[in-house]
Amino acid sequence: xxxxxxxxxxxxxxxxxxxxxxxxxxxxxxxxxxxxxxxxxxxxxxxxxxxxxxxxxxxxxxxxxxxxxxxxxxxxxxxxxxxxxxxxxxxxxxxxxxxxxxxxxxxxxxxxxxxxxxxxxxxxxxxxxxxxxxxxxxxxxxxxxxxxxxxxxxxxxxxxxxxxxxxxxxxxxxxxxxxxxxxxxxxxxxxxxxxxxxxxxxxxxxxxxxxxxxxxxxxxxxxxxxxxxxxxxxxxxxxxxxxxxxxxxxxxxxxxxxxxxxxxxxxxxxxxxxxxxxxxxxxxxxxxxxxxxxxxxxxxxxxxxxxxxxxxxxxxxxxxxxxxxxxxxxxxxxxxxxxxxxxxxxxxxxxxxxxxxxxxxxxxxxxxxxxxxxxxxxxxxxxxxxxxxxxxxxxxxxxxxxxxxxxxxxxxxxxxxxxxxxxxxxxxxxxxxxxxxxxxxxxxxxxxxxxxxxxxxxxxxxxxxxxx
Length: 468
Ligand code: SF4
Ligand code: SF4
Description:
Blueprint: H1 3-6, H2 34-52, E1 57-58, E2 61-62, E3 64-67, E4 72-75, E5 78-80, H3 85-106, H4 109-113, H5 116-133, H6 136-144, H7 149-178, H8 180-188, H9 191-215, H10 218-223, H11 225-228, H12 230-233, E6 240-243, H13 245-248, H14 271-274, H15 295-306, E7 314-317, H16 319-323, H17 332-353, E8 358-364, E9 371-372, E10 377-388, E11 394-400, E12 405-408, E13 413-416, E14 420-431, E15 439-448, E16 451-461
Antiparallel strand pairs: 1-2, 3-4, 4-5, 6-7, 8-10, 9-10, 10-14, 11-13, 11-15, 12-14, 15-16
The structure holds iron/sulfur cluster (2 copies).
């Protein structure tokens, strides 16, 4: 069954699955139109950024470091700590709302143009495959031919190339997690000490190889949750890759000596199907499998150019615009949703920019109330937790502003090393004559580099004794 035939019963099975439930291996044609050229430029930028990312430093810190196990996070050179967890929550919420609003308006364009899966699949692995095995027709022939010398040579070359690229991706991926310096020291260090990292690298390489050599479009169609959510996020006003059936139907091939007046602009050439990396026919309408890669737009435009018809039979537009024969315009909904997205992102950036460099929290030691040190003196234990989120060692000091409180600690002033979290134990003592309540509120001033940055409050627990 050809890819084109398979799309006829598109509601009954996926574009790459036959009526028996078997997978149809896809051989999408590469079509070099305007949009493909823009995607290529974008992918160069994207790939350059991805591979250079671990080596880029801002003030000596990596551009991006996501060390989940070591709990070290650096984003755009800014270190983030587990104490900044609320930023992560906010980031996730902002991302979810952003993605929903973005998809409602602009459809799934992220998938085709920005998603790493599509960029690597279409702009790296597919191109390598075309280079080694030839175009889609030759690839199909190669698959069907017996294992002769040509097939063995090409398949071996492809395997080595795919595996090599997967290995490079795995290394880069790991460098984003532990930093390239550490990765390098582990790769070049003794095997006995670093075998876990090397096992991790092998697993990552195998996963990337499997994804790009075998799983391919199934990631977008069956695995990715974002793809699965399209059905609830898109509506007839969403901008999607769409076929203008008002203009295109009734479709039909151009035949000599046949009156074309009653026919639509679609010449039923099937090129839009042949280029589709997920194996669907966009003329059947918006489908879950469409990743908005826009290859079918380039394909159809090239056909329209040949038959002297205007481009845009397949284009990015909303179903309502097509039905009502109106072109793209910024509707109040698009403007409102875009404004909400800009505000959301703006608020998040504002919060990140105004985030403090040093944090201090004074907490009572868990499970403790008070100690009676002597007949006249009570004590309470506290933990002073401090985080220095900067790259510099900073002088810190704190002051207890309550009469009669005596502070005992190994370190009442001093320094907080760069990028460090410290916990100090403080012992406050009070004489019974100064204890005016069972629960005394005590202010503690925290100074960084001589400047007051925070006034914390805690409570001193001790029984108030009646005046003697
Ligand atoms: S239908 Fe068009 S835009 Fe959608 S995945 Fe196929 S080629 Fe890409
Ligand atoms: S490429 Fe254009 S003309 Fe050809 S089948 Fe697709 S929609 Fe019709």
